[in-house]
Structure formats: C-alpha cells, structure tokens
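Progress note, project year one: complex with cobalt (II) ion.
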Amino acid sequence: MADYFVGSKEYFPGIGKIGYEGPKSDNPLAFKYYDAEKTVGGKKMKDHLRFAVAYWHSFCADGADPFGAATHPHPWISDAKCPMEAAEHKMDAAFEFITKLGAEFYAFHDRDMAPEGATPGESEKNLQALTAKAKERQKATGVKLLWGTANLFTHPRFMNGAATNPEFAVLALVANQVKAAIDATIELDGQGYTFWGGREGYMSLLNTDLKREKDHLAKFLIAARDYARAQGFKGAFYIEPKPMEPTKHQYDYDTETVIGFLRYYGLDKDFRLNIEANHAELAGHDFFHELETAAAAGLFGSVDANRGEPRNGWDTDQFPNSYYETALAMYAILRAGGFTTGGLNFDAKIRRNSVDPADLFEAHIGGMDAFAVGLEAASRIITSGKIPDFVKDRYASFDTGDGAKFEKGDLTLEDLAKLGGDYGAFGVTSGKQERLENILNQYLLGL
Ligand code: XUL
Ligand code: CO
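Model obtained:
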C-alpha cells in the first residue's frame, strides 16, 4: 500500500503524508503531540482516539453562509462533467486527504457521497455505485467507516419533519432512504449507524401532536433497527442529541432526554449516544457533562469532536483546540472504558475565509493534537489517582455500615430517619474544587 492514496488526479498537491515531529516543531503540517504508535496507558494513541474525517464538512461544504456565496471552490466538483462524476472525484479527494492525514476512519451521509436522483430508485442506484467505489478505496487504503447516516434534513420534503412528519407519505420516503443508507453502511462494514434528528422536533405546538410524533419516531427507529439486525448489522446505532437548530425544540434535546426516550421505548440495548461538543453547549451543558451522563447510563458510544462559540447560539462547528476540554472529555471516555465501535469524528468545518487547501489539514492536525494532549492529561489523572481517589473517598460513608445498607436498598425511610436523629451533627467537608482544578492544570502541563 502506498503511503497515501491518489486517484485520477492529486487534489492536495505539494502536501504529503503528515508525520509526527514533536512539540518543538514549527512545521504547520506536522503533528506536535499526536504520535499514532505511541503507547498511553497500555494502548496506542491511534487505538484510543480512533479519528474520523467527516465527509460533509470536509468535501461538500463550500463556505456559503446565510449572508454570502461559496468561498471554497472544490476542484473535485468544478472539474467534473456531471453530479455522478463530481461524486467520484470527491471520493478520490476524500481518500487522498484521509490517507495523507493518517486518520483511520471516516463518516458520511448518503447525500454527501452520492447525489440525489430524480426518483428514490435512482437515488439508491447512485448510492450503490458510490458504495462500490468506496469499498474498493477502503480496501486499497485500510481506511474504515466509523458510521454512516442518511441526510434527512436538507431536502424540502423534510421541512415538517422526517420520521416525525405529519404526512405518512414522507415517513415512507424516509424509510426508503434510511434502508438504502443502512445497506450502504453494512456493505462498507460500518462500525455504527447514526440518527441525528435535525428536523425531528417542532417550531410551534399549535400545529404539532407531540405525543404522536415521538411515538412515530420510536416506531421508526425500532423498524430501522430490526431491518439492520436482520441484515446482519452488528454495529452500534447512535442517537446524536441536539437541542435546537434547525427546529426550535428538537426531541433529542440532550443526553439525559435521549436516555429517557431510549429506555421508555426499549431501545437502550441497541442504541447509544453520539455526543457532539457544540450540541452540548447549545443545550447549556459542558461537553464533559454530556459524556459523563451517557457513561453513567452505560450508553456512551461515540463523539462528534468540535467546539462551539460560547458567545452565540448556533452550531459553529469549529475544530476543537482547548486542551482543558479535551482533557476532561478523554477523562470521561477513558473511565467509560474507551471507544469500542465509536471514535472521535471531526464534525467540524474550517472557517469561510480559510481558503488555502492546507487549511483543511491544519485544522485536523490541531484537533488531533488537542485530543492527544487531552488523552495524555487524562491518563495522568487516572494513573496518579489523586482526583479519582478524592472522589472515591468523598463517598466512603456509603461503602460500609448503614451507608452500604442504604445503597443496597435495605433501609426504609423510618430506619433512615432514626439514624438521622441519632447522628445529630453532620459533616461540613470541603469539596476541594479549587485544589482539584489546580491539580488538573498541573497535569495539563505534563507535571
Ligand atoms: C448537525 C450534525 C450532523 C450530524 C450527522 O448539527 O451534527 O452533521 O452529526 O447528521
Ligand atoms: Co454531529
């Protein structure tokens, strides 16, 4: 296998395989901290982090925003004669980029990879043709599919919802599209399949039967799961929470809401959470909080790695660069047992005015380095034990005696009340937050 893949044309000329050069390097096209083969806590960095490149942001998004035109004129689109040829060239560009970067995975929506046809049947044929090509490319490069998904939000038919649309005909079309996307994911040996419910929510309760829509969503997910399992899909299904945008109130608001939904409808055996940092922020939560919440429920699955802009209220999908955030995220992920089917998918886009081909590389390099630093800091937190031991000791009164009996469910309220009356004085014990934050900062500096 070549060092990296080049298809019919090299789309990122002058940029070769990105290597590790260490923290002192001033080469913008080299890793400073991400050293794929380096072992941290008994496992290689690449196996901890399982980086994926997002097809949609990296090879489809063109820099257009609600106020202005495209600023990223993709050569793989402009050099093609028709949409199918553009899709093939885009795939060449994608595999060239992913292999030069050294990411092991990618993720895609059906419509990122293959254009929508005039009929559902034509759309499916387009997807099958590109899936066959992707399969060849995966074989040639060793790049793997982290997860597939269906775009159920761009087309005008989804304006009133996808699986929650009040018209049955739209729901049936959604099923047609999701079935094809599941087939493509299975064909490409995808390790997961994601449902992000962009249009699954509402703008006004005056025109919405909320209970019926949620029931429809659950019925649809059950049908999709049953189909995929019957086809032999062994991977994980993910729900990706987001509170708003594009709808005002999305049903998959945040991690806790999704956990409740999955358990209520009995979907918690097959579905897990795909947690996106920017979505956590929009829900008013820390990224770390969402990861920890999923882990506590045993439903942590995968991550859409990005960051938001705390001073505005929409999904800016910037590349992650805060070591503090990545350290806390990796601390939650490591304690959850690390990734199994999931990984760190860069659901992130370069800024509209980042117009050099190298910018896409530098953005990913920065994100990968940020998670490598976070991984090492998280590993230090765990091996030094100071922070986890502090937390363990904080709950020590539940480890033995009456506290342990309470945890087992052996004490009634009367029992507890009697003990409470006897105890009299209660503890006024410091939570030591400032000390723990200082310790975390020491680990961030590698101390
Ligand atoms: C949108 C978003 C999506 C999902 C996949 O905010 O995050 O790209 O990750 O549909
Ligand atoms: Co996402």
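The chain has a mean pLDDT of 97.
The chain has two domains: 19-384, 398-444.
No further modelling is planned for this target in the current period.
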